[in-house]
Amino acid sequence: MNIALIAHDKKKTDIVNFSIAYTSILKQHNLFATGTTGLKISEATGLDVHRFKSGPLGGDQQIGARIADNEMDIVIFLRDPLTAQPHEPDISALLRLCDVYQIPLATNLGGAEVLIRALEDGYLNWRDIIKDKKQEGNEE
Ligand SMILES: O=C(CO)COP(=O)(O)O
Q1: Which pLDDT tens digit goes with each residue over 54-80?
Q2: Is 29 annotated to bind ligand?
Q3: Rg for the chain (alpha carbons), in Å?
Q4: 37 in a known ligand binding site
Q5: Catalytic site residue 14?
Q6: Where does the MGS-like domain lie (predicted)?
Q7: Taking burial as the number of CB atoms within 10 A of a residue's CB, which of 10, 23, 47, 111 is the most buried?
Q8: ipTM above 0.90, yes or no
């Protein structure tokens, strides 16, 4: 599965601790992240993370484009709801695309834990079916 990991600055410690706690699961998947988040995760865990641009510089939009192309299966985006972000429209667009394409999304640590455990238990395997269908050319 392709997993996007994103965290706003005040949530960076949370996403790093989450990544440490679930390294054994995460390492079985393809990991993607916005720039700074990805750097911190790979430094702390040694996990191989494909890094897009930093969020304010377009990273959220790059991940959104992957979602639109059906190339992202899970999004874990630890948002900071108490701090205004300069790229708020990009954030909204990313969350919107998760809803457009029914991509499992967690925006806080509690949801992230549920998602990662669901992934481990196979509850997200339907994503493989969706991707297979696309490869068969059944999707626009
Ligand atoms: O701003 C972000 C998401 O909106 C995260 O970007 P960074 O991971 O580069 O800090």
Answers
A1: 999 999 999 999 999 999 999 999 999
A2: no
A3: 14
A4: yes
A5: no
A6: 1-140
A7: 47
A8: yes
